[in-house]
Amino acid sequence: MTDQILFTDLALSEPVLKAIQSVGYEVPSPIQAAAIPVLLQGGDILGMAQTGTGKTAAFALPLLSKLDVKQADPQILVLAPTRELAIQVAEAFQKYAAHIPGFHVLPIYGGQDMTSQLRQLKRGVHVVVGTPGRVMDHLRRGSLNLNSLKSLVLDEADEMLRMGFIDDVEWILEHTPETRQTALFSATMPREIRKVCDNYLRDAKEIKIASSQSTGDNIEQVYWMVSGTNKLDALTRILEVEPFDGMIIFVRTKTATVELAEKLEARGFSAAALNGDMNQQLRERTIERLKSGSLDIVIATDVAARGIDVERVSHVVNYDIPYDSEAYVHRIGRTGRAGRSGKAILFVAPREKRLLYTIEKATKKPITLMELPSGAAVTKHRIDQFTQQITTTLAEQPDLSFFNDLLAEFSNKNEVSPEDIASALAYLLQRERPLQVKFTDVKPERESRGEGRDRGGREERGGRDRNDRGGRDGGRERSREDRPRREHNDENMVRYRIEVGRNHEARPGDIVGAIANEAGISSANIGHIKLHDEFSTVDLPKGLSNDVLSQLKKVRVRNRPLEISVDTGAGGNSRDRDFGDRGPRSFSRDDKPRSDKPRSYSDKPRDGAPRGKLGLGDKPKGEKSKSFRPKKFD
């Protein structure tokens, strides 16, 4: 393939090329090869590509190559449908700009402290990556200045449409300079997205890339949901019970390779780090040790592991989940070599479930939930190893006469049975690594592999960030027929109290979206919601871990922390508890909206808002006693 395009052929800037070389990229993916030249020339593009095809680099690399780092106002704005994707894209920009001095990128999304965002925007940033609702908040506040904007990227546009963001996206587009360059990426092309392209893109070049990623049928793929157990402890359990020959454990950073290798060595495993900071001789020696069997576990980064071909690698563990499916395919391809079977284990935190679904969709292979080995299983494994050591030692027929005489003398002198002496010696031998193991097992929430996800395999987000706009009908909530319908058994639910209510302008969609987003609970598993004036109650499945509840305490809705706690029926004012004049507003997951018409707002523009759109300080009609704050989902 002498005519294969390399990144060095694409006229990217020297700092960007240096960063590409640092992360180990050489050959651009199809969408990168097609999109980068167009974006470098300032043209608009319409890219149809699945997640995992390398589209983040397709727009980040050329846009960074044109960046003027001396200009502190935002020059690039990327809109993403979820906070996870916003963080992921921001991290990618930071990685690709590693050799651009003074570069600043800022992810902005609901649920994050607004004060910190305001401070960083005031300091000056070159790239902003945000969810539509939070970007709108900053535009209304005047804290986000887009007068110098050069490029706008709409990432996963069909997902933004599905979540009800398309009106927000168009509102933002109307508040950007007409001279901007626009890149829109979407896996599908529904009519509404095509309309956005026709209205806001200029002579866009269409690029369509089919995803052809796949994984071998001889590789068993499982995942463990990080819940209630330390990741290192969970990994140790798996290493003890799982029969493996050689293993590669993938982490994200060079530092993590060294730290994890040291911790595993301290726990008795033969492990070593493999990262880009090691010289070539040391890397080759580590891989040779893995091949020869003198080393069983290598902890590596994606870059350091490229090209490893060791037949005895029977297992790959994704200790840190990769950010794209392409990296996942490369990782697990280190096992199952030469026709042998292999196993890939993926650690997934609740916030990373979306990445799991993306990997499944891109590879077209299901990844099944695994049970963490119990204390009893680890105990049995250690006992088997212990007894095998005794059997092996006796089979070697060593001269034990000295020890027989010594212990016989001790037995007679102290009137202790040989069994008690053997037990005492066994206890001493296993004291550093006890044979009998007891764990407090916390089972992760089991999800139905269909519930809470749409037909495309994506997680239901039940409102999420679209409720930045208060859940108005203009958010185009999906029809009730499309939502999972589930009857909840009260015996399997626990009622919780959260410290946000009607007086804080909270809506059920805000609560559902926050809990589904932050706790990894499918919206279909969130039960009855009651709104009171100063607080609300929500029914959630039994068995939520302390980690999940601690995380939910900090989640913010309407800029207030949930401070979730089990509802005891006490507390609150008598008006709330006795329901007073108004009483609680009770919502079922299948309730219908109160109105089929969007709320009407003043047509009189304020602070530059376009006619017919909500301007800063506008009030809903018919509400004189309440000051209006633009709807947002925190």
From TrEMBL:
KW Cytoplasm (keyword) present: yes
Catalysed transformations (reactions): ATP + H2O = ADP + phosphate + H(+)
Record motif Q motif, residues: 5-33
Organism: Cellvibrio zantedeschiae
Record-annotated membrane-spanning stretches: none
EC class: hydrolase
Protein keywords: ATP-binding, Cytoplasm, Helicase, Hydrolase, Nucleotide-binding, RNA-binding, Stress response
Domain Helicase C-terminal: 231-378
DEAD-box RNA helicase Q domain sequence ranges: 5-33
PANTHER family linked: ATP-DEPENDENT RNA HELICASE DEAD, DEAD-BOX ATP-DEPENDENT RNA HELICASE 47, MITOCHONDRIAL
Keyword field contains Plastid: no
Family statement: Belongs to the DEAD box helicase family. DeaD/CsdA subfamily.
Stretch list, region Disordered: 439-490, 565-634
HAMAP family reported in the protein's UniProt record: DEAD_helicase_DeaD
Compartments, record wording: Cytoplasm
Entry EC no(s): 3.6.4.13
Function in brief: DEAD-box RNA helicase involved in various cellular processes at low temperature, including ribosome biogenesis, mRNA degradation and translation initiation.
MF-aspect GO terms: helicase activity
Alphabetized Pfam families for the sequence: DbpA, DEAD, DeaD_dimer, Helicase_C
Protein name in the entry: ATP-dependent RNA helicase DeaD
Domain Helicase ATP-binding, first and last residues per copy: 36-207
Superkingdom to which the source organism belongs: Bacteria
Biased composition (Basic and acidic residues): 574-634
